């Protein structure tokens, strides 16, 4: 509420100043105008400083975010590469296991065939 009253006072003084030039202002009116001008200049400077700081903060936050995204992307790429390498190693182990399994089955079949031939050639004693 106080800000609304202050704004109304500033508007009224601005209108009074526009209607009469500096030479028609009282010393008190000129001092008040200069005080208001100084206050507005100070507020503008503070606003500019705040904006500059906010922009710097934003740029810092944006740079940090981009660095975080880049780090996450690198970590993801490394994890994907490890996963692919592990999957390839697993596939190689699987192929080696299947080849060993097939060799075992061939050897088992050869053994069974040799055993059958041996039994056929040498019947058990009765």
Helix-strand topology string: HH
User: What is the number of domains?
Assistant: 1
Number of strand elements: 0
Main β-sheet description = none
Overall SS class: mainly alpha
Helix content percent band: over 70%
The number of helical elements comes to 2
Relative strand content:
under 5%
- Point out poorly predicted stretches: none
Mean pLDDT across all residues, rounded? 88
Outline = rod-shaped
Description:
It is a single chain. The protein has 126 residues and is mainly α. The protein has one domain (2-121). 90% of the residues lie in helices and 0% in strands. It is built from 2 helices and no strands. The chain has helices spanning 2-19, 27-121. The N and C termini lie far apart (122 Å). The mean pLDDT is 88.
Q: What can be said about this structure in brief?
A:
By secondary structure, the protein is mainly alpha-helical.
List the defining traits of the structure above.
rod-shaped, mainly alpha, 126 residues, 0% strand
